[in-house]
């Protein structure tokens, strides 16, 4: 049984006092060292595996240009859009079930298994002989990748307090952006392989499928479990005292270091929380922008008249530029303990990028628009994820809510896949305006939830309500 709240707070205050500098002004090197060790062990491996999944999701556009479209007749009708869309059906369905399995099986076992599964599936794409086989494999990839992101986000949020988490999520996500930036270059190198009688596009899938297969065993040994489930034999980098201090810090911050089993009642409870629907809607709107630029930037660049080599090279810089943008603003957001204003800022940057991409005539200016759109949309993902994580309590609630939120992102992928249609190439005005509408809806949702948070916090300040079942808890806005 977990200690009562008073005892948990007393234990934390003792640990905090012991781990502060003599003047009591800041945490001691011991406490900072604990966070740094967790950072180095947890974030890089999760980010590396997520990065490969991001490359795998976006490699269809690259393969299409590399010869898959012609060989498998993907350019006929809406076959490309169908292949993009079908991925998100299982991706949506299996988010929450996967998070429930994650707790039962263990983070290291489950997340590394998912990585191995989608790696084998991607590898199989390299041997496909018809476009329908690619569609079937995309269903498998969507099934395996469905649980990875919400599982990682839930695991990260359970190791850090509320105003440490956005920086960590942004680093986790930045690793994916870095790999995504170089993913097209990797694909370009792979398509130059001429062996086994395969065209270059097949080697894109073969090479990119082998990477997660190779990383899966490493993930099994490096990924750490939830703080309440850790076995010290798997945590030689932390002492038992450091693990306990982490748990006490989480209890002091939000009182949910102890796991509560997910039940059917939990799922229905989360689905009745209207705020969760708002956060999920926000993630969907941000995801529309991310998927739009990830899937169609190579095709837009092709429409601008760039040759194959330049398309692959020019697809990388916007993703790389999004890394310092997202991390820098995430650092400021954690420092200021604000989320809503940054969501609006990212949405506005995305809007400007969309309009420049759609309506300017000069190629250089349109390319700059891709930079802005990629930075804004990608910067919003860690912000919105952290916002929900800040305002919910309980590991059972967190498991369901994170799965539901990321599942909503799958709807954003479906939306982007069906609004950017081949007959509108290369301008894609319909898709761009559909993405623009999503950004305006996102801004409106920020206004709605911020008004609610401010009103609820004022009521709690006057002792009229207790927020989220914890005395002293206040919503972040």
TrEMBL record:
Q: Which organism is it from?
A: Oidiodendron maius (strain Zn)
Q: Where in the cell is it found?
A: Membrane
Q: Which UniProt keywords apply?
A: Membrane, Transmembrane, Transmembrane helix, Transport
| Region listing for Disordered, in residue ranges | 1-30
In terms of superkingdom, the source organism counts as: Eukaryota
- Transmembrane ranges, per UniProt, are 42-68, 80-98, 110-128, 134-159, 171-191, 203-224, 276-296, 311-333, 340-359, 365-387, 399-418, 430-451
Q: Give residue ranges for domain Major facilitator superfamily (MFS) profile.
A: 42-455
Stretches with biased composition (Basic and acidic residues): 7-21
UniProt entry tagged with the keyword Disulfide bond: no
Which Pfam families does the annotation name?
MFS_1 (PF07690)
Where is it chiefly localized? Answer: membrane
Protein's membrane topology: Multi-pass membrane protein
A molecular function annotated in GO for this UniProt entry is: transmembrane transporter activity
Q: What is this protein called?
A: Major facilitator superfamily (MFS) profile domain-containing protein
Q: Does the keyword Membrane apply?
A: yes
Q: Which PROSITE patterns match?
A: MFS
This entry carries the following GO cellular component terms, namely: membrane
